[in-house]
Amino acid sequence: MPRPEALPEGERRDLRVPAVALAGWAGGLAAHLVPAPRPAAVPAGLLVVACVTALVVRRRACAGLVAACLVAAVAVGAVTALRLERSGTGPVAELAALGAAVDVDLEVTSDARAVTGRYGEVVLVRGTVVAITGRGVRHEVRAPVLVLGGEAWQRVPLGSRVRAGGLLGAADDGGLSGVLRARGSPEVLRPPGPLWRASAAVRASLRASVAHRPPAEAVLVPALVAGDDAGLDPEVEEDFRTTGLTHLTAVSGTNLTLVVGALLLAARWAGVRGRWLVVVGGLGIAGFVLVARTEPSVVRAAAMGAVALVGLASGGRRRGLRSLGVAVLVLLLVSPGLAVSVGFALSVSATAGILLLAPGWRDAAAPWSTRPLAEAVAVPAAAQLACTPLVAAISGQVSLVAVLANLLVAPAVAPATVLGLLGGLVGLVWSDGARLLGTGAAWCVGWIVAVARRGADLPGAAVAWAPSAWSLSALTALCLVIAAAAPWLLRRPRRAVPLALAGLLVVTVRLPTPGWPGEWSVAVCDVGQGDAVVLRAGAGAGVLVDAGPDSAAVDRCLDRLGVHTLPLVVLTHFHADHVDGLVGALDGRVVGQVVTSPLPEPAGGARGVAEVAAAAGAPVAPAQVGSAGVVGAVTWQVLWPTPAAVAGGEAGAEGDAANDASVVLWVEVDGLSLLLTGDVEPPAQRGLARLLAGVRVDVLKVPHHGSRHQDLELLTGLAPRLALTSVGADNDYGHPAREVLLALEAAGARTARTDVDGTLLVAVDDGEPVLRTEQ
Predict the structure, then answer these.
(1) Domains of the chain: total
(2) Pairing of strands 161-169, 397-399
(3) Are residues 278 and 181 in the same domain?
(4) Is the residue at 173 inside a domain?
(5) Structural domain boundaries, residue 51
(6) Edge-to-edge strand order for the sheet containing 750-753?
(7) pLDDT tens-digit series, residues 527-565
(8) Domain check: are 98 and 67 in the same one?
(9) What is the 3-state secondary structure (H, E, C) of 592-614?
(10) What GO CC annotations are associated with the protein (predicted)?
């Protein structure tokens, strides 16, 4: 590689502006992490560091850079601290701290989004409170809040002003002043302005242009063009995550680059030149942001896309890196919350990887391949490598097929994006033409879906990677080594080709999966804040009771247990922490029947289970109290819920209907007796106590992750030898409650919990249950 000073002026890497931006980012992180009071502590501390550094550093150039870095850190830190302080003070925050009932006038700043929460389906809407009445006093304010509302909130358009009432609570997000749990339907005071109405019309037209296509394509075209991924199939989403294609389902800088790039080409073809091209590009960026929404993620993506366009227009890396640094610094000053945003970090990392690594890799491979092919491989590979440590920290896995998958879909992304946007625009005046364009976009997206599905099915598509500090540090070091060695490896085909073939072999040939040693009869998988219990039915077969909240976690656990067949899957109830991992549990396994709670609440969870099971070809049936069966070594019987419990007759005011309708199983496996309790709470437990009077069990799965709401007479009266709690580390619910564990231990039980002990394995030794834990 030539030395930097030997490179042409446009190709020299000037890292001063990125260094200043990184310093600003550090200041923003410090402001988020330093305890209150922030406004005085953060800027003052950084200012002291700046003064000391200025005295110590004598070289003018170095001193200037250090001073600029510290000024950026102070500026971003101060803006962040002030923003956090403002969101945490004032009338809205004070009323939130009191849990007050309020009436608010609210400007809606995000699209409504329905999610399945712990206690049912809820609609999330972000907004800015402009007036609030609480405790008899009305205040004129401007404060950001999150609204948790009912179905009526889904019909509230972005940009409107509404009036609503409800209970205001404190927010965990430092960028919010409170969380409004709305009651009833909102009253629209002012409809959206003309720009927002035009944006909504384009998005609706875009969806209509592909509504006639298969569901996956009909959802992914709007997702690719404008980040509108409502209704995305969980299985397709998991395939995209495994193959490193998730960025295509959200607004990214690539979207803007493609759209605005096509607009600039059309403008040049029409004779536009000079500064007018800049005007066209600026209008294109503004229009893109308007259609995709002015949320922080969209603004971030637009900025990163604009950086790519600037780098392309300048013909070199130098301006691209400077633009990246400026964009990062400006975004942090405008939206300080981005300092702790994972999406922002991924966008910046990918853009930096493309600017820093891709040109060198391309130039190394171009002499013996072709420049277009070398660039097509270098760009996604550089972006993926730069993001790999962050992705591993988020997902707990490293995709081995991401580069190949991105390379294969690259030819389809541009036409899908441009044709989809044209379909949305044309659909405003000509529906048949829009359907034609939408069909073309859907064909392109169909190829992307096919690549994701085939890639995810490969045996070595992804490897688990523990998100611990040491493992992530090792992964980061490995990525740095690869980045440094890649030009040398790519410069000669005799080095690059064998390496590529070896990588292909690793991905396509199934390697032995290291399992947990020794025999086991029962496994309580460590899947975070949720339940997933496996009963060993035979060689390679198991009965799965609940699937946890994380598809990757339950899939890994089943792999390590060597379970390839699931003759029976029981889902105790439909809360996300028990069913959201079903995609991973069923993926690649032979599945028999799925038995569920007879109460289909929350409705979103029930629909999701039905869709995933249908895709796997597994019939779904509600559990019936008294029903029983034998699966290999497992004998099971349904003890709960009774028809009265499903109808609500057994649930008291303090119970949750879905929890108290959990399927409770009596199980015998390898001579052990178990009671698997789902999330039943005291009202249902009192009903169970009448059924189980005088009964003893060997192993108890502690109900509801060890919540303090328990009928301790029932639990201790069962006299379990092992009491196992499936619970997530550092959860917000206080699970498991110390008094519950102490009561069980006082009754003679040995207690264990997944958040501390990892996966819990129970074996049988001379008729006695033996517990082993595996991290």
Answers:
(1) 4
(2) unpaired
(3) no
(4) yes
(5) 4-85
(6) 628-631, 634-640, 664-669, 672-676, 699-701, 722-725, 750-753
(7) 988 999 999 988 788 999 999 998 888 988 998 888 888
(8) no
(9) EEEEECCCCCCHHHHHHHHHHHH
(10) plasma membrane
